[in-house]
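Structure (tokenized):
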């Protein structure tokens, strides 16, 4: 299975990372809430070493709740106690030395051991009270971060179309087909390489009751979001690198 995934690279706009992958996860019931916004709003939150990426002059920020399951180190069985948990990440779109990728603004998880493990690898995870359940084909998600920041997401979503593969050079492809991600660590950047088969998505409907997740006022997001739903995706991850 993994060999077949690694060999499928035609859809990538960037080379597959050097060396062997070190971890695999299954991502399930993903909701991509993509919001366009002025690049002047997003620009101040991009660290040195990265440049803001835009599509037809607009910056984008994505809120992504999902389930992580079947997580394990290469050639080892699933990790005990952290094999299945909820995650919520908020990211924007950037480039580094011409390579397109994602910049994580925040990362929340529902299991404290997963958060502690991620922080040991320098990723800026936070523990949050989270829940997800399915009822009549609709997924209900709740996340409230512990501590003073209180980042919140509450809503429900469902797929709303048949499956489709984003067209080349489309906005869908620009948002989804990204295989490097960065986060900040002081004056350095943490880089992780990612690989999976090409995205096959569905359009989605969502009702968001509350959210407070962005570093800027939510009133800056004046346009309606573009939504994608993905049932499941097997993902391969490479070792983290510290870069300037």
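Design, position by position:
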């Amino acid at each position: 299975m993994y060999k077949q995934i690694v060999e499928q690279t035609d859809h990538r706009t960037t080379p597959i990372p050097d060396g062997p992958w070190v971890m695999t996860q299954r991502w399930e019931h993903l909701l991509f809430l993509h919001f366009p916004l002025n690049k002047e709003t997003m620009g101040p939150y991009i660290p040195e070493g990265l440049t803001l990426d835009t599509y037809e002059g607009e910056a984008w920020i994505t809120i992504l709740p999902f389930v992580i399951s079947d997580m394990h180190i290469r050639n080892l069985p699933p990790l005990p106690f952290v094999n299945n948990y909820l995650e919520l990440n908020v990211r924007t779109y950037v480039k580094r030395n011409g390579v397109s990728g994602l910049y994580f603004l925040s990362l929340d998880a529902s299991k404290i051991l997963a958060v502690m493990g991620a922080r040991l690898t320098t990723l800026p995870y936070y523990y949050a009270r989270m829940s997800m359940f399915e009822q009549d084909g609709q997924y209900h998600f709740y996340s409230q971060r512990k501590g003073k920041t209180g980042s919140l997401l509450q809503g429900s979503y469902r797929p709303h179309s048949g499956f489709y593969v984003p067209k080349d050079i489309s906005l869908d492809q620009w948002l989804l087909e990204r295989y490097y991600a960065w986060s900040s660590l002081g004056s350095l950047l943490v880089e992780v390489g990612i690989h999976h088969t090409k995205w096959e998505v569905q359009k989605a409907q969502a009702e968001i009751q509350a959210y407070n997740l962005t570093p800027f006022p939510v009133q800056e997001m004046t346009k309606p979001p573009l939504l994608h739903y993905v049932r499941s995706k097997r993902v391969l991850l490479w070792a983290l690198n510290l870069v300037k």
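Reviewer-requested clarification: The mean pLDDT is 93. The longest helix spans residues 112-120.
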